[in-house]
Amino acid sequence: MHIAITGAAGFLGNKLARQLLKNGKLLGRSGKPEAISRITLADVTAVTGISDPRVHTVVGNISDPQTIASIVTPDTDSIFHLAAIVSGQAEAEFDLGMTVNFDATRSMLERIRSLETRPRMVFTSSVAVFGGPLPTSVPDTMATLPQSSYGTQKAMCELLISDYSRRGYLDGRTLRLPTISVRPGLPNKAASSFASGIIREPLAGQAAVCPVHGDTRMWLMSPQQAVNNLIHGHELEASKFGFTRTISLPGLSVKVRDMVAALERVAGVDVAQRIEWTEDEAIKRIVNSWPGDFDTQRATELGFTSDEDYDSIIRAYIHDQQTS
Amino acid sequence: MHIAITGAAGFLGNKLARQLLKNGKLLGRSGKPEAISRITLADVTAVTGISDPRVHTVVGNISDPQTIASIVTPDTDSIFHLAAIVSGQAEAEFDLGMTVNFDATRSMLERIRSLETRPRMVFTSSVAVFGGPLPTSVPDTMATLPQSSYGTQKAMCELLISDYSRRGYLDGRTLRLPTISVRPGLPNKAASSFASGIIREPLAGQAAVCPVHGDTRMWLMSPQQAVNNLIHGHELEASKFGFTRTISLPGLSVKVRDMVAALERVAGVDVAQRIEWTEDEAIKRIVNSWPGDFDTQRATELGFTSDEDYDSIIRAYIHDQQTS
């Protein structure tokens, strides 16, 4: 069985790749678990640190059709399409966001369609497709009113993947991820970058800026939970999806001040005091447009899962850092 | 004041052009009604039958950037973008639908953006953006789950126009039109074509096929009401739109059997008996995925209006035919 992952140099793609290599199997065209014989890891930068004979790497920009052609080949059974320009950057660089987040996804769908191989594709969307006046808990039937270009591009891809799937060009599954926390590594240009930074940096002995109000409610998921749900989304039978291939994943609804309180409980007062509260209007405008809580009935019925509490997310992050 | 209308050879674009020429004025950049000095009527076929010194015509395909450049010029103040491949054809010819319904709209938005003139644009979307399990009456907050490629393309354009407007590249307004009934002229490839055909053809002494069940509930608007609402949508202050530029227009919710009953009341039993009931699965699949009733609170608050009853729609159609 041949798999491709885009955005594989990113931490989530990378973590997914490791998990798949470890699992060794994934549901194949036979409808049964099949041994993974090849994983193509694609990104604009080289994917490092994974040494496995099953791994092939593609370094290139997915806005280039040649790159897409080398990622999606006639023997590609499944694709995890995670590559994206993050929210803050897509807002600042409109054309870049359109090209990578929308056009490249469409090119990939067209490549798949032209091959007539109908692979499975798991695509990651985001809570950023929502905005405007929202109920306290966002239901599965909620209209998408993105208040950012990133959210707009993701919502357009959701529609396209559902239509291509309905037409039988591929077997797509779009999972709307909560904000991932705690991401390891460096801050990025996502408006939600702080949701990891305010935990990660203090734990590393560094100061971190929290650019939003403590009352801001975030919809969160740990990296491991995200990987588990991406794989679960792949394994589901196509017939279970019904009228749309898009699913809002379950998450944890936590206020920023309660994230910090959890950090204090897990790592101590001194660590939590490394956070500086300096509001940033550009980040606030985007983050405050996102819903902080969902009623993800459909995802729960389909067997997707959420983290237990934020304390255990922090503890898992600390454990991962110590063992990696 | 300079106006452009795409799809101007279509009956709705044509009717709109005549109405605007008759009115002579439209809200201009001054924020006040301004005299219409030029209307550019664009379509793939020549627009005929309108003789007025203010009219300029562009014949060309809007998927050609050259055509778009001649429709949207630096002195274009307002655009009514009505050109589209209809639902049945967009389903049968996927690439054509994507090119005309989505790519051409995007090219037009990019043309507008490059001019930096920020014109008003009224775009027509459709009830076809909805589908899947729906409440009896569809609220303004309902998720778009199109079950056709046409609906998908329209929903993608809605998102793009809201984002371009939010970014200040233009002042867009997307109106989701109910099914227009009674359209004059010939049947077309829209899945909803019958909703005019079952009235128009019997009134002309011809047989008409009704491809759906009599219990099918349709969301309808007369041509004159549609023109009034398109103009109203243009005249509204941008600030009234809030978090999205997309609005579901109010309509009349009528069962197909009650449309026929109205025809019988207005034109007699003999006329209504010219309808043959022969169900067509392809048409039923698309039409049955559309909602038959809406709660259009937002549109009503913004002053959009619906027809009084279906009998008066038929009477207005008969009157128009006799006087045109």
TrEMBL record, chains A, B:
Record has NADP as a keyword: yes
The source's domain of life comes to: Bacteria
Q: Which UniProt keywords apply?
A: Carbohydrate metabolism, NADP
* Molecular function (Gene Ontology), one example: oxidoreductase activity
| One protein family per Pfam | Epimerase
Q: Which residue intervals define the domain NAD-dependent epimerase/dehydratase in the entry?
A: 3-212
What the entry lists under PANTHER family is as follows: ADP-L-GLYCERO-D-MANNO-HEPTOSE-6-EPIMERASE, NUCLEOSIDE-DIPHOSPHATE-SUGAR EPIMERASE
Its protein name is SDR family oxidoreductase
The organism is: Pollutimonas harenae
